[in-house]
Amino acid sequence: MYDVAIIGAGHNGLTAAAYLAAAGLKVVVLEKNAHVGGAAYTEEFHPGFRNSVAAYTVSLLNPKIIRELELHRHGLKIVERPVANFWPVDERRALVMPYGLPARQRAIAAFSERDAARLPEYDAALDRAAAVLKQLILETPPNAGGGLLELWKGARLSRSVMKLPLETQRDLAALFTESATDFLSRWFENETVKAAFAFDGIVGTYAAPSTPGTAYVLLHHCFGEVNGKPGVWGHAIGGMGAITAAIAGAAREKGVEIRNNVEVREVAVANGRASGVVLASGEVVQARAVAAAVPPKLLFSSLVPAGAIDSALHTRLANLKSGSGTFRMNVALSELPDFTSKPNRDGTDHLASGIVIGPTLDYLERAYLDARSDGWSKEPVVEILIPSMLDETLAPKGRHVASLFVQHVAPHLPAPRSWADPKEKEAFADLVIETVTRCAPNFKASVLARQTLSPLDLEQRFGLIDGDIFHGALSLDQLFSLRPTLGHADYRMPLPGLYLCASGAHPGGGVTGVPGHNAAREIIRDRTAWWKGRA
Question: Which residue of 243, 374, 461, 521 sits 20 to 30 Å from the alpha carbon of 391, by its own alpha carbon?
Answer without folding.
Answer: 461
